[in-house]
Amino acid sequence: MGSRRSKLLEDVKQHLCTCAEGLKLTPEMEAFLEMPMRELYVSLPVHMDDGSIKVFRGFRVQYNEALGPTKGGVRFHPEDTIETTRALAALMTWKCALHKLPLGGAKGGVICNPKELSHREIERLSRAYIRGIYQIIGPDRDIPAPDVYTNPQVMAWMMDEYSKLAGKNVFGAITGKPTILGGSAGRYDATARGGLYTVREAAKKLGINLKTARVAVHGFGNVGYHAAYLAKKMFGCKVVAVSDSKGAIFSADGLDPEDVSGHKHSTGSVLNYPGAKTLTNEELLELDVEILIPASLENVITKENAGKVKARILAEMANGPTTIEGEAILNSKGVHIIPDILCNGGGVIVSYFEMVQNYSGMQWGEEEIRSRLERKMKEAYHSVYNFASKNNVTMRQAAYTLAVGRVVEAMQLRGWI
User: Fold this and answer.
1) Same structural domain for residues 159 and 204?
2) What is the pTM of this model?
3) Is pLDDT above 80 for 5?
4) How many domains does the chain have?
5) What is the pLDDT of residues 194-252, one digit of tens each?
6) Rounded distance, CA 163 to CA 262, Å?
7) What residues bind substrate, as annotated (predicted)?
8) Which sign, positive or negative, has the C-alpha torsion 226, 231, 235, 241?
9) Cα(98)–Cα(342) distance, rounded to whole angstroms?
């Protein structure tokens, strides 16, 4: 699994290399951009419910702050590594730049299995993590947010711990909070909703009727569930397959995402959903659908399975779901890839909106949030699509070139390089 995680970092660096020549980056500039500006390792002693003390390992990586304070999620995962965290911090840097947010990129993680921890143990771990990284975070430095296996409750604990250490309420130190504690309306489905706005624009370009389009979603967590639910609700798509870590289900007649979600919550998995056929996660990726949405973890589409992908649109709502080798095969087949730093930018965009609301002391309504999100996603999609078409490059290379170019310009103007 470690090699799989380091593969993500290698691919992110390779994507940077592909746009280096077009941006006329010197070897020194490229080397600077390939490494994080700052990393912090922390050991977190936590009192467990049985009276013992367990020490957890955590990280915070601040990749680049040329465009503003860094921003990025915190992942609680048993297979988290510093290589994964570096790669995700880099992706967040390019994502913020691509969507023209005044933010840099960061990422954090703790090696743990939240499924084996009690509610109170997760709270103690969340607070310990903030104590560990307190000196390098804050509203004007680095703003953590939710990621895999963290949620608004975890963010509430983290914000409270930061406020205790600061000696005052600092709601803007963390985003992804419950709305009553300064969180933003619309944050819960922002990543999926933002991604679907780009799917809609891509469907227009490709002449795909979304009302008859079939959709498969790989990963039925928060993002995957909302992607399935909104694809059906917003566009009338037929969601024919979804999966979780235990397997996948398929129905040619279409699934009801809300009902499947209820089944998963009551049984622990999407498997054995009444009337649906059981598939493997690999088989889901190879289904005959118009739209495939990877919404799980990295490196699920590889050189081994990319040739079997039949979808016309690949909407990357996960970070790094497609390897470089897999992408080359998809491009040769004419699959329209909406790259992760474009497709899943909705989460950080609405997190930025949350920061703005915290700074101003105002709260925007959900319709205003959605309207602002839609404008940002449409603008980013068309800027990438137009650049790719004009310069005869892939959508990913276009996205990286635009994003890295903005970071480089900021670094030059600040006199860093």
Assistant:
1) no
2) 0.94
3) no
4) 2
5) 999 999 999 999 999 999 999 999 999 999 999 999 999 999 999 999 999 999 999 99
6) 36
7) 71, 95, 351
8) negative
9) 7
Residue type, 16: L
Does residue 54 carry a catalytic annotation? Answer: no
Mean per-residue pLDDT of the chain: 95
Report the distance separating Cα 284 and Cα 296, nearest Å: 13
Q: What does DSSP say about strands 38-47 and 53-64: parallel, antiparallel, or unpaired? A: antiparallel
Cα–Cα distance measured from residue 202 to residue 208, given in angstroms and rounded to the nearest whole number: 8
Instruction: Specify the residue for token string 């892939």.
Output: 394
How far is 404 from 410, CA to CA, in rounded Å? Answer: 10
- How far is it, in rounded angstroms, from Cα 116 to Cα 93? 32
CB under 8 Å to 63, separation ≥6 — which residues?
36, 37, 70, 86, 89, 90, 92, 93, 104, 105, 106, 107
Residues 145 and 218 in one domain: no
Q: Determine the residue type at 326.
A: G
The answer as to whether 195 is a domain residue is yes
Candidate list 107, 177, 264, 376, residue with the active-site label = 107
Question: Where does 309-386 show beta strands of DSSP type E?
Answer: 313-315, 336-338
- Residue 184 inside a domain? The answer is no
Cα(158)–Cα(132) distance, integer angstroms: 11
Q: Are residues 236 and 339 in the same domain?
A: yes
Kind of pairing, strands 313-315 and 336-338?
parallel
Q: Is the pLDDT of residue 1 over 50?
A: no
Q: Do 127 and 217 lie in a common domain?
A: no
Residue 252 amino acid letter? A
Question: In terms of Cα–Cα distance, which of 321, 317, 284 is closest to 302?
Answer: 321
Sign of the dihedral defined by the CA atoms of residues 390, 394, 397, 400, in that order: positive
pLDDT tens-digit profile of 30-67? 989 999 999 999 999 999 999 999 999 999 999 999 99
Residue 16 pLDDT grade (very low, low, confident, very high; cuts 50, 70, 90) = confident
Degrees (nearest 5) of the Cα angle 59, 63, 69? 100
Binding site feature residues for NAD(+): 191, 222
Burial of 136 (0-12, 13-18, 19+ CB in 10 A): middle
Hunting for tokens 């800027």 — which residue is that? Answer: 383
Distance (Å, whole) CA 191 – CA 315: 12
In a domain, 240, yes or no: yes
Q: CA angle 63-65-70, nearest 5°?
A: 75
Domain assignment present for 353: no
Which residue numbers belong to the known binding site for substrate?
71, 95, 351
